[in-house]
Design goal:
This protein has 9 helices and 30 strands. The longest helix is centred in the middle third of the chain and has 12 residues. With about 350 residues, it is an alpha/beta fold.
């Protein structure tokens, strides 16, 4: 069965502001790879070659990062969604691209460790109208939740106060073209969005067959800082150590650490799992576990742990250890020796700072 891919990358990322004031949330790196690239790899590995990407205001940034898809051996088509009006609205926006072809819809800020190949193979082998991925969660109130009879889905509820189960919708779905009719038939929710849960429930209510696949490995919706850092930890856990940069004789590398090409480590300690991006420079510093330093970053006289630092940032002479942090692009954090001793900030809207 021929399948197309549809990756949704048009969301505004309000829960990751201020990072997403200027950057696409799908391009925030996890273990030094943009989140969106994990989704492209998952679709490619499942045998999909024709992929549409739903984009919004960050279209140009995503186009620049992904290009025509040839890096992954796929063809990418960009589809502009004028406003983030729900997942079912995104499906309707892509109607011309999808045509009469079944497709996989993948949320561009989700990570699924085991990939989706088994899920796609199951869909290809079954006579079902939709196949959805589910995962057991401890806080189903945060998600769309399913009630099953066997493998068959009989009810879906979006963010219920009283969840019918602990089975949450994961960010990958498989549909036959009938989902377009369902998306056209439903009304906007109280959020003024066309909800994909309502469209799937429409299929169920009208006798179409919707089945579920419960995944056993980890999955993350990286929409919040806590989830993004946890996803970074999970990916780094599988890191294969290597050193392509320069490490001087006074530095120590402990555990699984990657030092990428052009990186320089001077009089510093790196404790894995952690990764230092190309062209970055670590001097007189400690980089602790579950830390990802992206490219062309400078860290001097400072300590970091359980954090993500994006490209071209500088961290210099910070007296306390930085933990549980996401530091954006071109950021400078430095201790000042000027008098009088004061805190001096230039922070964007929705910034968060923790002071000792």
């Amino acid at each position: 069965m021929e399948l197309k891919g549809l990756i949704l990358s048009g969301g505004e990322g309000t829960r990751l502001r201020p990072i997403t004031h200027t950057s696409a949330k799908q391009l925030v790196p996890v273990a030094n790879k943009p989140i969106l690239f994990y989704g492209l790899e998952a679709l490619r590995d499942a045998g999909l070659r024709d992929i549409g990407i739903i984009v919004g205001d960050t279209e140009e940034e995503i186009r620049e990062a992904v290009g025509d898809g040839s890096r992954w051996g796929v063809k990418v088509t960009y589809i502009r969604q004028e406003a983030p009006l729900g997942l079912a609205h995104a499906v309707l926006t892509a109607a011309d691209f999808l045509g009469e072809t079944p497709f996989v819809m993948y949320l561009g800020d989700n990570l699924i460790k085991e990939g989706i190949t088994a899920f796609v193979d199951e869909f290809r082998s079954k006579e079902v109208d939709a196949l959805i991925l589910l995962a057991r969660v401890v806080d189903p109130q945060r998600f769309g939740v399913a009630r099953l009879e066997g493998n068959r889905v009989v009810e879906l509820v979006e963010k219920p106060k009283d969840p019918p189960s602990d089975l949450a919708l994961v960010g990958a779905y498989m549909f036959r073209p009938v989902i377009l009719e369902a998306a056209r038939a439903i009304k906007p929710s109280w959020r003024n969005e066309l909800e994909i849960t309502d469209a799937i429930q429409h299929l169920i209510d009208h006798g179409y067959r919707v089945e579920a696949h419960v995944i056993k490995g980890w999955w993350k919706d990286t929409g919040r800082l806590e989830d993004l850092l946890e996803a970074n930890c999970m990916v780094l856990e599988d890191l294969e150590p290597r050193c392509e940069g320069e490490v001087d004789g006074e530095s120590r590398i402990l555990g699984r650490v990657v030092v990428e090409d052009g990186a320089e480590i001077v009089r510093s300690t790196l404790r894995g799992p952690s990764i230092i991006g190309r062209g970055s420079r670590i001097v007189d510093s400690y980089i602790g576990p579950f830390t990802s330093i992206y490219y062309d970053v400078t860290v001097e006289g400072s300590e970091l742990e359980h954090s993500i630092v994006m490209e071209n940032s500088v961290i210099r002479n910070i007296p306390g250890r930085i933990e549980d942090s996401l530091i954006g692009k071109n950021v400078e954090i430095a201790r000042s020796f000027n008098r009088p001793k004061t805190y001096r900030f230039m922070l964007g809207d929705n910034s968060r700072v923790g002071l000792i």
